[in-house]
């Protein structure tokens, strides 16, 4: 049997920024409110958030995700557009149907859409620093008037053609250093470059806090969906900066061996992770971490 030396005194800090961002919270509140007051079946275009546990809870309340409106056979239904937003042509086509549509696009994503639209009208090409297949990015591409390019970072900017005028924007959950490095590369290939740092403020705060605490932690536990881009990004930051980092979806993925010699533990979570899941992880960490444990909540909820 393996025996691990556990730290004598352990401090567990729970991130202030852990849990739902305002955009996700707004979308969830909207569908739950609809489910409470409407007799219609509620569909979301794509999973409302990238978190399996929350999606299961929503299903229990008869809120279902569809990949396209063609899957909705029921005329007496409500379709919710999720926080990531969709391309304008797709939205126009949906609104032309005989269906009640509720828009839960995050206002901060709408701000990026408007930024791209305004620049595209003035003849700018758009460079989006983000994940090519992410729903938010697919939606943003729809505003570029056909002159949009997606890059994951500075290396991919080098492969782009030269531009007379370009506007570089970020997916709202992008890592700031990557965006700024991509903008520096873009300066070399654009005659005129507009730099629109559209990383949203909740993401910026979350990343700032994560960097600060990951640097001084022996173990960082990142809680969130394995399919959540913003959680994956948080984990990448922690992997780089902390002595050890783990990305888990549920508390039962925690192992005693993770806590070996760890006296400073930081728990953070992605924008689509519910507080109750972070609490379960905290309870399990408390059980596995050792005997003298102090808990610091940076933002008691
Ligand atoms: S991450 Fe930011 S932009 Fe995206 S939904 Fe949340 S608050 Fe809105």
Structure description:
The protein is α/β, with parallel strands linked by helices and 301 residues long. It has 3 domains: 9-20 and 202-297, Cobalt-precorrin-4 Transmethylase, domain 1 (3-Layer(aba) Sandwich), CATH 3.40.1010.20; 22-105, Rossmann fold (3-Layer(aba) Sandwich), CATH 3.40.50.11270; 108-199, 3-Layer(aba) Sandwich (Cobalt-precorrin-4 Transmethylase, domain 1). It is built from 10 helices and 13 strands. The chain has helices at residues 22-37, 52-60, 88-95, 107-121, 135-141, 154-157, 176-189, 201-215, 229-241, 275-289, and strands spanning 9-14, 41-45, 63-66, 77-81, 100-103, 125-129, 148-151, 163-170, 190-196, 219-223, 245-248, 264-269, 292-297. The strands form 3 sheets. It has a 5-stranded parallel β-sheet with strand order 11-10-12-1-13, with helices on both faces. α8 runs parallel beside α9 (229-241). The chain is flat, with a radius of gyration of 21 Å. The mean pLDDT is 92.
Characteristic key phrases:
301 residues, Cobalt-precorrin-4 Transmethylase, domain 1, Rossmann fold, 4-stranded parallel β-sheet, 10 helices, flat, binds iron/sulfur cluster
């Amino acid at each position: 049997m393996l025996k691990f030396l556990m730290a004598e005194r352990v401090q567990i800090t729970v991130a202030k920024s852990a849990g739902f961002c305002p955009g996700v919270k707004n979308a969830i509140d909207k569908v739950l409110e609809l489910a409470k007051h409407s007799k219609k079946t509620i569909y979301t275009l794509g999973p409302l958030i990238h978190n399996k546990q929350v999606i299961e809870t929503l299903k229990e309340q008869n809120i279902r995700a569809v990949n396209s409106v063609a899957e909705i056979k029921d005329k007496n239904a409500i379709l919710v557009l999720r926080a990531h937003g969709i391309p304008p042509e797709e939205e126009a086509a949906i609104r032309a149907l005989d269906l009640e549509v509720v828009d839960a696009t995050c206002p901060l994503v709408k701000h990026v859409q408007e930024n791209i639209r305004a620049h595209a009208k003035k003849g700018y090409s758009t460079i989006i620093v983000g994940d090519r297949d992410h729903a938010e990015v697919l939606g943003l591409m729809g505003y570029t008037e056909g002159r949009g390019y997606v890059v994951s970072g500075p290396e991919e900017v080098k492969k782009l053609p030269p531009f007379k005028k370009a506007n570089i924007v970020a997916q709202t959950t992008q890592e700031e250093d990557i965006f700024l490095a991509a903008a520096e590369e873009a300066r070399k290939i654009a005659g005129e470059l507009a730099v629109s740092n559209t990383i949203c403020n909740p993401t910026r705060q979350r990343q700032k806090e994560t960097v600060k605490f990951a640097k001084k932690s022996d173990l960082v536990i990142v809680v969130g969906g394995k399919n959540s881009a913003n959680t994956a990004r948080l984990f990448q930051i922690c992997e780089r900066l902390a002595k050890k980092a783990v990305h888990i979806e549920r508390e039962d993925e925690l192992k005693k061996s993770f806590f070996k010699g760890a006296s400073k533990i930081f728990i953070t979570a992605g924008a689509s992770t519910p507080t109750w899941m972070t609490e379960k992880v905290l309870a399990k960490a408390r059980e596995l971490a050792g005997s003298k444990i102090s808990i610091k909540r940076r933002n008691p909820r």
